[in-house]
Every structure is written in structure tokens, then in C-alpha cells.
Specification:
Length: 261
């Protein structure tokens, strides 16, 4: 090949038929000044895109000072991070399963016919430090005046950590609401052939039939994600386990609020 020739890698025929995920990004840039909440916030126009019916994004739902206050609370007693998973988690409301510690010693491993049983833990209730968030959600029509989330799970992601594709457990109703803190991340959505509430732990989430349609949605720090309708019941969501685009020191905390079914 001569020095002046095009040195790009030749594509295979199959490369032209691979579907690329559509990307939804909030239309308004992050605001640098504190936000006044005397009136309702509006979802970004791209969040209402019909690519995923029922999905809404509200950028800058909280101020930088409020974000700092939430992080200080989560990282101080009496809050305790759960560390039995690859990512740190924290639960408020209801119960959760604490998985037994993994052992590298063969003598500590139970027989294959007797898998270790998770421990059922009673979580503390939604703390008063979240009250301003819930009140603001009601002001913006995310919850009705008589409705409030009873459950919240907090996830802490660093490095290349992510979460497998899933729908929120069908024992919960809608909406499912997620608040992002710190770094931005893209969440990938997969459309299912029909609603499927199979869990990741049981393996049913991986076996759920997909249409092949997928959409990437940018979740910005201090922004709110609201899932209703199809996007809550018929679309799985995941955060890819990758370091691409994250950089050194990348860190994200998410608060997912859920209501009883």
C-alpha cells in the first residue's frame, strides 16, 4: 500500500447491519447557579422523545449544596454501606437480602446441593434527610399529594462498575424515580417483547425476550429520571461495566425511589 493511500480498516459486510443505540441527552446544559424552586421544573424536551414512551428527565433537580448535603449524610453514621456486592449499596424501607461472604477457602465452601442462603435484613425507614426531595417531587407532579415513596436503594459506582439489565421488581408500582449524584453516566434501555419482571439473581432477566431495540440515555449529576408506563414495565435498563468515558476518579451515586404496588 502506498504512503498516500487510505489506511482505514476495511469494514465487514455485517458491520453495516448492526443496530446502533439511539442516544437521548438532556437538551438544557447544566446550570452553574443555584436553582429557584418556587415553581415547577420542566422535563427536558428530549426526555419526552417517543423513543422510550414514559421516560422523563429533569436536569438540575437539586443544587450543588443539596448534593453535597446528601453525600455527607450517606457517608456518615448512622448510615452504613452494604459491601457484599461489587458496588456499595444502602437500603431504606422494607427488607433486603444480604448475601453471604464469598470465601476463597475450599473448606469453607458448602456442598453444591446446599447453596448459601442470604440473610433477610430489615432496612431503616426513609430518613428525614430525603423529605425535601419527596416534597419537590410532589410539587413537580411526580407523586400525588397523597402518595410518597416508601423504599429507596442507594448505589455507589466507581471505576468500571455497572449494573445488569433489569426491570424494577413488579411488586413495586410506578413511577420509579432515580436521582443521580456526582458524575454523569449513560444508561442503556432494552425494549422487551412483553412486560417481564424477572430478576437478575434468578437469571430470568437475562432470558427475557427483547425486540433488539435499545436506547442510551445520558443521566447527568443532580438530574432526575422518571420511569412510567412502557419504560417502567417493558424496557430493561442497565449501566454498562466499562471505563470508557469515565476517566480517573469517576464516581457516581444514585438514589432510586419506589412505591408499593
Amino acid at each position: 500500500m502506498s504512503p498516500g493511500s487510505n489506511n482505514k480498516k476495511r469494514k465487514l459486510l455485517t458491520d453495516f447491519f448492526l443496530p446502533s443505540p439511539k442516544i437521548i441527552r438532556p437538551s438544557s446544559p447544566p446550570q452553574q447557579q443555584p436553582i429557584s424552586f418556587t415553581k415547577s421544573l420542566k422535563p427536558s424536551s428530549t426526555a419526552q422523545d417517543q423513543a422510550i414512551p414514559g421516560l422523563s428527565l429533569i436536569p438540575n433537580f437539586i443544587t450543588p449544596d443539596e448534593e453535597k448535603s446528601l453525600l455527607t449524610f450517606l457517608n456518615s453514621p448512622p448510615c452504613v454501606w452494604r459491601t457484599d456486592l461489587s458496588r456499595k449499596t444502602m437500603h431504606f424501607g422494607g427488607t433486603y437480602c444480604l448475601m453471604p461472604p464469598r470465601s476463597s477457602s475450599a473448606t469453607d465452601k458448602p456442598p453444591p446441593t446446599q447453596p448459601p442462603k442470604p440473610q433477610i435484613i430489615q432496612a431503616p425507614p426513609i430518613p428525614p434527610q430525603f423529605s425535601f426531595l419527596i416534597a419537590r417531587m410532589k410539587t413537580n407532579g411526580i407523586y400525588t399529594p397523597a402518595q410518597a415513596p416508601q423504599y429507596c436503594i442507594v448505589n455507589h459506582y466507581t471505576g468500571t462498575l455497572g449494573i445488569s439489565a433489569h426491570t424494577e421488581n413488579f411488586t413495586f408500582a410506578e413511577p420509579v424515580v432515580g436521582l443521580s449524584l456526582l458524575s454523569n453516566v449513560e444508561m442503556r434501555f432494552h425494549e422487551l417483547v412483553k412486560p417481564d419482571g424477572g430478576s437478575v439473581r434468578s437469571g430470568k432477566a437475562q432470558r427475557a425476550r427483547r425486540t433488539g431495540r435499545k436506547v442510551d440515555v445520558l443521566l447527568e449529576g443532580r438530574g432526575l429520571l422518571v420511569l412510567r408506563g412502557d419504560t417502567r414495565w417493558k424496557w430493561q435498563h442497565e449501566i454498562l461495566r466499562t471505563g470508557t468515558g469515565r476517566g480517573v476518579g469517576w464516581e457516581r451515586v444514585s438514589l432510586t425511589f419506589r412505591v408499593k404496588g
